[in-house]
Amino acid sequence: MSDTSSPQPMPFEELAKAVHKRRSVYGYLSGLKLDRAEPGEAWASLPYRPVFVGDTETGVLHGGVVTAMLDECCGMAVLLALTVL
Fold it and tell me: Fewer CB atoms < 10 Å away: N or C end of the chain?
């Protein structure tokens, strides 16, 4: 007889650690850090690096860097909304 029981939800703290470990290659290489996690929410930070600058006169970050950070952070928030990873 097969086991038809549902998987047990992962405790949230374990889920948050697992989500942080499953970041994209960009997340690892850029230094993106998950600073705070709540169910369905993620706050992340990205250290300023000169290579991220899109406008050398002003020092403003390249839009692609900002967009990639937002994409990564939103992906983590979606995963944190799940009960089982």
Answer: N
